[in-house]
Structures are given as C-alpha cells and as structure tokens.
Amino acid sequence: MTTTLPVFDTGAIETAATSRMVLDTVRDALIAHAEGRTSVPPPLHMDFPQANGDCHVKAGWITDTADFTVKIATGFYGRPGSGMPSHHHGLVCVISADTGQIQAVLNDRGLLTAWRTAAAGALVTHAMARPTALTLGLFGTGEQALLQAVWLAELRPISQILVHGRNPHNAAALCEELHKNGLPARPASARQAAGSDMIITTTPATAPVLDAADVREGTHVTGIGTDMPHKNELPPELFHRAQLIATDDHTQCLHHGDFGHAVRAGATAQDSDIAAGLLLKTPPDRPDTAITVADLTGVGALDAALASAVLDHLTR
Amino acid sequence: MTTTLPVFDTGAIETAATSRMVLDTVRDALIAHAEGRTSVPPPLHMDFPQANGDCHVKAGWITDTADFTVKIATGFYGRPGSGMPSHHHGLVCVISADTGQIQAVLNDRGLLTAWRTAAAGALVTHAMARPTALTLGLFGTGEQALLQAVWLAELRPISQILVHGRNPHNAAALCEELHKNGLPARPASARQAAGSDMIITTTPATAPVLDAADVREGTHVTGIGTDMPHKNELPPELFHRAQLIATDDHTQCLHHGDFGHAVRAGATAQDSDIAAGLLLKTPPDRPDTAITVADLTGVGALDAALASAVLDHLTR
Questions:
Q1: Which sequence ranges are marked TM in the entry (chains A, B) (predicted)?
Q2: Is A100 close to B87, i.e. CB distance below 8 A?
Q3: Do A7 and B7 touch (CB under 8 A)?
C-alpha cells in the first residue's frame, strides 16, 4: 500500500547518463518544443529576502510522452556581509501523464538542468555555426562554460578556446579544466574572445559582455546566461548585425532573454527569430559571412525529456 | 556528498501525527495567515486533457519559521467511458528557508492536505458555532466529511449527525464509519441536515447543496468544498442572512470560494468578511440567534506548518 518512492542521487544519475544520451534527448526535445508538442505552464516563484534566496518550480511535458516533470530549484546567496556561502539545491519529480502517479524523485541537485542547458547550447551552436568554424570564445568561467565547451567538442573539432572572465584566476582555472578534457584553451580579453569563430556566453551579466564591433563576419554567438529580465549578455547591435536569430522559446526570450533586450532597443523586429529546434531538424542555409545569434533561456520541457530518459536507464 | 534524501511514507506520517498535534499546528498557522505572517505564491497548474487529469503545485511558508514547503498534487479522473478509476497522488517537499536545502520528501499521497483541511474546518466551526450548538449537518459523504465530524467531536460534544449525500448508499456507509468512531449519525434529506445547529459542506458541488431558507437562526455553516471558480456549495442568500462571515483567505475566497459567488450576486459586501484565524485567537462575540458562515478554500501556508511539524516528530 505505501511503497517507498524511488529516489536517485547524483551518483546514480551520473552513472545512468552519457553525453550522447543527453545530447540526443535534448535535441529531440528542442524539436518537439519548436513543433508545439510541449506543455510548459508559468513557473511558481518564491522569495526569501531574509536569506537572499529564491525558489523556482518549473513543470514541463512533451505531449506525446508518458511522463511529465516538476522541478524544484533553490538558490540561496547569503546575506551580504554574512559570510554565508551560496547554496543551490534541487530535485526533479517524474510523474506519469496517464495516472498522475509520482514515479520517482531524481535528487539531482541541479545536475540535469546543467546538462540540458549545456546540451542545448552545444547543439544549437553546432547547428548554426558555419562548418569551417574552428575557434571558440567562452565568456564566463563557471561549470556551464566548461560543459558547453566539452560537449561542443563532442559535436565538432575545436582548434582553440579563448576564455574571458572578469576574474583572471577563474579564467586560468577553467583553462586548466579544459586542458584536462584535451581541449586547447587560454585566458583572453573580451575583445580577443569576441574575435573567435564561435562564441558562447555563460555569465550572470546585467550588461553586455562583448562589443558587437569586435564580432567578425561569419561568427556564430550563443547566449545562455540571460534568464531574467534584468540580465543581459549580448548587445542589441549584435542582433541588428545578425542574418539569422534563433530562440529556444520565442515568448520567453522576448520576455527575459537577450532577444527581448534587442527588440525593445529597436535593434531587431519582434518576429525576426526562428525556433532553435527547427534548425536542429533542418540545418540552416547560411552564407559563410553571416553573423548568427542564438538566445537560449531554458525550456521546461527539456527537463521532462531528460529526466524521463535518465529514469528509463536507471530502472530498465 | 550525495546523501540520500529522506523520504517518509504515509505509514510513518500516520505514526508521527496525532489529531491534537494537527489541530494545534493548523490553529497557529491560520492565526499566522490572518496576521500576515505567511508567504503563499500563485500556484502552478497543468492540465492533461488526454487522461482527464491535472497537476497543482502549491508552495507556502510561515515567515518566521525554518522551513517552507512545495506540494505536488495530481488528480486523474479517467477518460469518460474508459472505465479507468480516479487517481490522486501527491507529495510534500520540506525545504529550509535559510539555505534552500531540501530536508525531506513526505510521500503523503494527499494525507496532510486532507488533515489540514479537516482541522481548519473543525477549528473554525467550533470557534464560530454558539456554545450550545449540539447537532451537526454533514453535506457530502467522502473522507473529508468523516474527518471533519471526527475532529469537531474532539473539540466539542455532538449529539447527532445528519448526513446528506446524493447517493444514499454512500450516506449510509459514512454513517457506519461515524458509528465506528462513536458518533451518532443517520442519513437525512438536505432540508433535515440544513436544520442542524452546525453545518459543514464537503462536496464538489457546482450549485448550492442547501436552501438558505432551511437554515435556522443561531446556525453556523462552514463550506470547505468550493476550491475552484466553477464550484459552489453555499447559496448567496445564506451570506445575506449571516451576521458574521469568515474566510481563511480573503483574496482566494473572493476569487474561487462561495464568498465570491455571494459577493458577485450582490448578497454581501466585498469587505464583509473577517479572517478566520482572528476568530481562533479571539472568539467572536456572537448573539445566539445569529447565523454565521465560514468559507474555507485552503491555505498553502498550512501545508508548510503541518509538514514541518510532522517532520519534526519523524526526525527528532
């Protein structure tokens, strides 16, 4: 009668998932989202001002699949001056879309979100960059910057990675991590990094991290850090110069992505974007001199797809 | 590093909780809510039309306490004619309001919601009914009807329970359950049940279940079944006759409670209600001939209080 709910920790999740499985799953989910085969309700949000914390609950479902997910993520950043470190916690509940039964809890501490974000960035960057693009400029020095580069390198060769971070120690540390993964990398100025063939920005910036004038013709730029209205990584002028703009979710990117900043600045039209998932299905026909931009704000249906795939591996 | 998240099933939860503990916790939480010491964000909602199902996610926090909760509840009612039975599932995540750490999952399958709903109904009914009220009219024959009566009987003597249900078999079955709990009960017509000293309605009705003219002076009525705008248990005329109206949450009851129906019908003023929690702190000074009404739509902060209290017992 009261069977215990299966709970899987990060160790089990890491064992069950391969980068290939994550990439394939996220690819299919982005296509499903672009084709309107997903259901993503408005998220639930709570603030904890006394501890500088917040809690987001996001749900998602790919409408022709067996399970949906409810994901809880908390970020607590400590009171200024309290010396309290930042905390991030999270779990994903996998729930049957046929019976409502809760199948399992993936106590992933945000791992699946990091994976699907990195996979989406790598997939879209690979699909939109010209085939001859070889160098990568990375803005930001966190876990996402590392994952994006490593997974993009699974999809195409990278000859050089230029890492730009505000903190030189963090940039050097990321380069060391990239070396461990067999990738050539060195710290660079924002201008140098912006001169790469491919650019991925993974920062929590609230003002553009690069100058559009430093971006050369033929470059592809993917922004993944802007997930709230007050954040902004990519300058509106970059969207103005772009010949192809992709968004993972039009409404979301208009509301709180870099695309929205560019539209509100009058740099591009509100209907100038196409769904990133469509480019994964049919690669774009892009001139070698075109600048292309992808704005990825994160789609809840990807959580559902990835959590279901991981759970399948864990319980098969 | 990857400690397993504690999960507690209904068996453990039932062992940890006593009706006294639930009543005390819910009483304090209703008072906290009335005094503005709670945080309850708009819920997340998802529909699954292909299986006639839905999923609600509700969060709540009593702002001077250590934990908040995120509650997931699903109701899947089967396709009409599919012969598939209804399913209800649910769990409660207890999360630290200081660090965001997920402390435990209470895999309660909706038990805590049933308890806090019953406790709120019993507490408010007891506080608002005149001291000499002895008979109880119960509308509805489900688990909530049973719990409401049993817990009200813990707070004050009940000389007779008249049970009204649309299905006579269900009404008889509930009377048998009430007998097992030492309570005198018998099936009755709506008119008979409406003539009781105290009335509690626990139905999913979409039209009033009783005639206001059948309610005598000095009666207290508590409605707990109306939790969506299209539902309606209590007639507007009852609110018009009432000298005291209480709501567990003014905004919520206005939006999707019986109180809202009465206001929109012009039967009572939009500001005619007082917070139920205040009546638990300071019992109302009510004439013996007054009709009093409580509209309870369910407050998310009660989940937080009850789940925390249960978890304390489970882990202390």
A1: none
A2: yes
A3: yes
